[in-house]
Design brief:
Bactericidal permeability-increasing protein, domain 1; seven-stranded antiparallel β-sheet; single chain; alpha+beta; 29% helix; 5 helices
Length: 215
């Protein structure tokens, strides 16, 4: 029972040990998560504003601190709370719409800094048999994040007009919770997919008996 309860903690620790060094492990198909690369995120924080981010690098995803783990051994359902001290986001953006009744059509660099983040991880495994050997795979990996504090900055708003750019950036950060309500589900989905692929590649290298010798 105790061994099963530590599966997800083992996976997170393994992923962290690998990704924190910014290396890949070809034998396990494990990519680096420093930085985690996201292709494109599109969100509409208001009916009058659309922002598309692309070529995104996320730094700090591997620097999580695992906390309490829980397990339903019958359903192969595991959960763990993690702390993400600091997440840095760098990328490009395109924005169209209005902020404070001002028309905005801009593109440029995007910078995000998020601190005191708390993550809730839920992992569902399932058994399967391969060439007569019982194994386990990750059927679902779900990550939910709450952000304690954060800032967003968009470069080159209004063609680089500093005063108007500052007004819009201030408006964004004064309504930070509204922006995060739209943005976080997209980030959560991308991180969940990345971690599921990595965890699955790791556990499928072993038999169920190897993972849980005392089960």
């Amino acid at each position: 029972m105790a061994a099963k309860a530590t599966l997800i903690a083992f996976l997170l620790a393994t992923i962290g040990a690998i990704t924190a060094r910014d290396i890949r492990v070809p034998d396990y198909n494990v990519p680096s998560l420093e930085p985690l690369k996201l292709k494109k995120l599109t969100f509409t924080p208001t009916n009058s504003l659309r922002l598309q981010a692309s070529d995104i690098d996320v730094f700090g995803a591997s620097n999580y601190i695992p906390h309490k783990a829980r397990a339903d051994t019958e359903k192969l359902l595991y959960a763990i709370d993690i702390e993400l001290p600091n997440i840095i986001v760098e990328g490009k953006y395109e924005m169209n719409g209005r902020v404070l009744l001002l028309p905005i059509h801009g593109s440029g660099g995007l910078h995000g800094n998020f601190s005191n983040c708390i993550g809730a991880v839920r992992v569902l495994g399932e058994k399967y048999t391969e060439e007569g050997v019982e194994k386990i795979r990750i059927k679902d990996f779900n990550l939910k994040i709450s952000v304690g504090h954060g800032t967003l900055k968009l470069d080159n708003l209004f063609g680089g007009e500093q005063v108007l750019g500052d007004v819009v950036n201030n408006a964004i950060n004064n309504n930070f919770d509204l922006f995060m309500k739209e943005l976080l589900p997209l980030v959560e989905k991308a991180l969940s997919k990345a971690f599921q692929n990595i965890a699955d590649n790791i556990v499928q290298q072993f038999s169920y008996e190897q993972l849980f010798p005392n089960a």
